[in-house]
Design brief:
heterodimer, A: mainly alpha, MetI-like fold, two-stranded antiparallel ribbon, 2 strands, about 0% strand, B: alpha/beta, D-Maltodextrin-Binding Protein, domain 2, 2 domains, 10 helices, about 40% helix, cell membrane (chain A)
Chain lengths: ~290, ~270
Amino acid sequence: MDERIPGWLITLTASVSLFIMVFLIYFLLQEGIPTLREVSLKELLLGFDWYPTEEPPALGMAPLIVGSMTVTLLSAVMAVPFSFLIAIFLSEVAPSWFREILKPALELLGFLPSIVLGFLGMVVLAPWLQERFDLLSGLNLFNASLLMGAMIVPIVASLAEESLQAVPRELRDACYALGATRWETIRKVVLPAALPGLLSASLLGIMRGLGETMVVLMAAGGAALVPISIFDPVRPLTSAIAAEMGETPVGSAHYHALFFAGLLLLTMTLGINLISMWIEKKGKERWMA
Amino acid sequence: MKKSAIALALAATLSLVGSAFAGDLVIKGSTTVLPIAQSAAEKFMESNSDVAITVSGGGSGNGIKAIIDGTTDVANASRFIKNKEVKAAVENGTYPVPFAVAMDALIPVVHPSNQIKDLSIEQLKKIYKGEITNWKEVGGSDARIAVVGRDTSSGTYEVWESKIMNKDRVTQRALVVASNGAMVQTVAKNKLAIGYIGLGYLDKSVNALTVGGVEGTVKSVLDGDYPVSRYLYMFTKGWPTGDTLKFINFVLSDAGQEIVGNTGYIPLR
């Protein structure tokens, strides 16, 4: 009897959280789909004018979608290689006492509230960028990506370090036994073996960036524009939702469009998640065989 | 002591009857008017301890929608009601009544190092349309203009659009910030920037421009000389009675208008 209680408890909590998740998705669909009654899917996804409060509203989300993607990709391009270097250093090079200190510190950094970064971007980084590169404004794609990169480095580095650690000792030993140097071992054995883990670590970081709101709201400049240069301002989906939802009449076309933007974000993160799961599965097949 | 006992009893009763009676008076709407409504409600409840007031934001559109649906007693709005909304209200059998409770002025601001002191409405419009892109074209130094605007959903944007843009779109290249505070920060940190803020947010970190030679002050706004100003409203569901009437009267009284002044807006007298 009493042995069954923990089982029940787990089932109960699991089903409650599952129910909440399903409810959330249902709610997003219910509030997001009605926008298609007023605007066509084509106009929503491919329209370039975002003037949602006009009569009738212009609800072209292409600049917002492109904004989300460019900020996320640029931040990943800047952050991922750096994260990998940190991970390699921590896992393969640093003495263990140093690792014991640095790893928790890195994980702590991952909890830095993003609004702090956003504020730094607005007050310190933006004026500096503007002066340094003679820009129209320091609030732009580059600024936001830099901050977002700083935000995802701890996450990606920490996960990547774990997947490097998970590479079996035997592989390294075998490599050393063949007379390889440490660098050769890292490059030819450890990295390829950990590749699926490294990739899924980067994808998790990218997902975090895609959903991040505060940094882009404060530092990306907020213009609903398809960027041509990395110093153009952008307005990602998340910052559009955050900035506009507060003053949007419930039930209006604009309101439903913002929920649709949320749905788009969910779809994008879901896509990345599926890719990451697929990579992990492939990796397992390759190395377990 | 007695007061807290009453409050406790009130809280107990409220928790018993549930949310249906949570507050005798419900106020919703514009985040611009919110500070006025909040301080007014606090002061009002001090002398009318039998009235419980619930104040929340959500935007002018939401407030007016709540009046139409009958889910609020007072709707704060930083704009006048639209024809469409009046029609919807009448169809629902409610008659929104507007009360102007304060005025607000939008002030164009630039970086303190900028030598421009005045812009006409026409110049402001061209700058925000993206037709004028260099400070030199309006008599400044040869430098590009960084146009900073507000989110299209904000009441502040709506006033700027109706008073300055007059049916034209603000350029997509304009930077967009989410609040008056962010606007001050952005303009104060950018030598090329121009932006606009509510009068109450003006401080030394930015330079206020005059519009067509008129300085935005409490006096010029009240005289009607300053062109970029607006009334802030409270709408009631039908002609107010009972506690709603008492509250509206309080906001319009000397004490209420003093609160308006203290929150950074312009009292009506």
